[in-house]
UniProtKB/TrEMBL annotation:
<protein>
    <submittedName>
        <fullName>Two component transcriptional regulator, LuxR family</fullName>
    </submittedName>
</protein>
<dbReference type="GO" id="GO:0006355">
    <property type="term" value="P:regulation of DNA-templated transcription"/>
</dbReference>
<dbReference type="InterPro" id="IPR039420">
    <property type="entry name" value="WalR-like"/>
</dbReference>
<keyword id="KW-0597">Phosphoprotein</keyword>
<keyword id="KW-0238">DNA-binding</keyword>
<feature type="domain" description="Response regulatory">
    <location>
        <begin position="5"/>
        <end position="121"/>
    </location>
</feature>
<dbReference type="InterPro" id="IPR001789">
    <property type="entry name" value="Sig_transdc_resp-reg_receiver"/>
</dbReference>
<feature type="modified residue" description="4-aspartylphosphate">
    <location>
        <position position="56"/>
    </location>
</feature>
<dbReference type="InterPro" id="IPR000792">
    <property type="entry name" value="Tscrpt_reg_LuxR_C"/>
</dbReference>
<dbReference type="Pfam" id="PF00196">
    <property type="entry name" value="GerE"/>
</dbReference>
<dbReference type="InterPro" id="IPR011006">
    <property type="entry name" value="CheY-like_superfamily"/>
</dbReference>
<dbReference type="Pfam" id="PF00072">
    <property type="entry name" value="Response_reg"/>
</dbReference>
<dbReference type="InterPro" id="IPR016032">
    <property type="entry name" value="Sig_transdc_resp-reg_C-effctor"/>
</dbReference>
<dbReference type="GO" id="GO:0000160">
    <property type="term" value="P:phosphorelay signal transduction system"/>
</dbReference>
<dbReference type="GO" id="GO:0003677">
    <property type="term" value="F:DNA binding"/>
</dbReference>
<feature type="domain" description="HTH luxR-type">
    <location>
        <begin position="135"/>
        <end position="200"/>
    </location>
</feature>
Amino acid sequence: MVMIEVVIAEDQTLLRDALATLLGLESDIAVVGLAADGREAHALVRRHKPDVLLTDIEMPDMTGLELAALMRREDMATRVLIVTTFDRPGYLRRAMEAGVAGFVLKDGPSADLAGAIRRIAGGERVIAPELAARAWDEADPLSDAERRLLRLAEAGLDSNAIAEASGLARGTVRNYLHSAIGKLGATNRIEAARIARQKGWL
């Protein structure tokens, strides 16, 4: 029997351990690493070269989408399966653009998750059907820089702190945020961040 090797990246310890236990019951799936954040997951994937990385979207240091994009740039053979509670089409669209092989929701049956891992390891793409039809309804208008600065604004940082954290000049920060606010039809940076978060663009 050919074993499918999996690394799990999930910042919630209880859920991470539960996923590992569930998948450990499958005779053809072996969990070879557990990560609590995106950077740890990246290191584990480089070390173990698993068939599949099962990852959440929202994680410290590096999101699952940022991790998938990094793995694509590095031409890693490991295929990525996003498992999330967020059913926002914007997330799915960004995941597809990052080269993710699968996107499923956490409230699905455990047997479906194991099946998705097998299909992805076999070269297929697996998308939650309730998301697939809506994925391309509304394009993400934000640039990567605008998205990064909106996250900092969402965290409550003022312009000086955002400039320091991003390594950009205050004027550049102001221009990027002004552009993002205009694209989203918001009145300020906090509202822009809220809109972008609701649509799955952050």
